[in-house]
Amino acid sequence: MKLVSFRTESGKAGNGGQGFGAVEDGMVVDLTAHFAGRATGLRGLLAAGLLDEARRAVADAPRRTLDSVALLPVIPDPDKIVCVGLNYRDHVAETGRTVTENPALFARFAGSQVAHGQPMVRPRVSDRFDYEGELAVVIGKEGRHVTEAQALSHVAGYACYNEGSVRDWQLHTSQFLPGKTFAGTGAFGPWLVTADEIPDPAALTLETRLNGEVVQRTTTDLMITPVPRLIAYISTILPLLPGDVIVSGTPGGVGAKRNPPLWMRPGDTVEVEISRIGVLRNPVVAEE
């Protein structure tokens, strides 16, 4: 099942015009009314353990055309977004760093995200705006000290992520955060594909394209720290909650390490495609 968050122009979908539902046969199955009073948004649906009911409700829920809604980031309001740096050996090599025993983690904030089809925003203070295609893991069940063997049972599903990075700000200090969470720089979508359709997150192909040209390509079995270990490691630090997002790292080929560097510029179109999930596509604009 493909799950989306969206907003309607009429404002009748639910909370301030925001709704959620499933994508089926090119239509949005609007589940907002069915779960009124029990779940506000996809995060609420997951927290209430209503995913199986959502599958059953799809048959009778009203439908909307995809072009009648504005998609939102898959989870618009996660409690936390934990990003993983340097999780593919080719990316480690191109940065001149060394593989670490434990994953390099940093945070993003929800306000830095845009949805499929929305513009990614190059900040006015930099022209070094880089693409990073990544697999996003969305947590479906709360867990603390989750074992690797249990980890995938805590996953609701997977989505595409473009972890747009403002490279000069990223390198202001040894801390990555300043370049990783500018407003409108991270894209998350187009939907969440539920975990029952992707039993093995290490069996996917990821490709990033800039203006149609392939700039990154990998398979997720090449992650240094695979998804189950990421979940185990992060859940040891603090509880993972339904709707939390783990952005699992980008492969080699980033624009900053090309000669000459290849930056995203206003007017560009960037795509992240992951097999069995779909294509996340965004135009690039300059900050007004």
Question: Can you describe what's shown?
Answer:
A hairpin with a 2-residue loop joins strand 2 and strand 3. The chain has helices at residues 41-47, 51-57, 89-95, 167-170, 227-237; strands spanning 2-8, 18-24, 27-30, 63-65, 69-71, 81-85, 104-108, 113-114, 120-122, 129-130, 133-139, 155-163, 165-166, 186-194, 205-210, 213-219, 245-247, 269-274, 278-286. It contains 5 helices and 19 strands. Helices cover 12% and strands 34% of the residues. It folds into 2 domains: 2-71, no CATH class; 81-286, Alpha-Beta Complex (Fumarylacetoacetate hydrolase, domain 2), CATH 3.90.850. It has 288 residues and is mostly beta strands. The longest helix has 11 residues, at 227-237. The strands form 3 sheets. Strands 1, 2, 3, 4, 5, 6, 7, 8, 11, 12, 14 and 17 form a 12-stranded mixed sheet that branches. Strands 9-19-18-15-16 form a 5-stranded mixed sheet, with no helix packed on it.
Which labels suit this protein?
288 residues, mainly beta, Fumarylacetoacetate hydrolase, domain 2, 2 domains, twelve-stranded mixed beta sheet, five-stranded mixed beta sheet, 5 helices, 19 strands, 12% helix
Layout of SSEs?
Layout: E1 2-8, E2 18-24, E3 27-30, H1 41-47, H2 51-57, E4 63-65, E5 69-71, E6 81-85, H3 89-95, E7 104-108, E8 113-114, E9 120-122, E10 129-130, E11 133-139, E12 155-163, E13 165-166, H4 167-170, E14 186-194, E15 205-210, E16 213-219, H5 227-237, E17 245-247, E18 269-274, E19 278-286
Parallel strand pairs: 6-17, 8-14, 9-19
Antiparallel strand pairs: 1-2, 1-5, 1-14, 2-3, 3-4, 6-7, 10-13, 11-12, 11-17, 12-14, 15-16, 15-18, 18-19
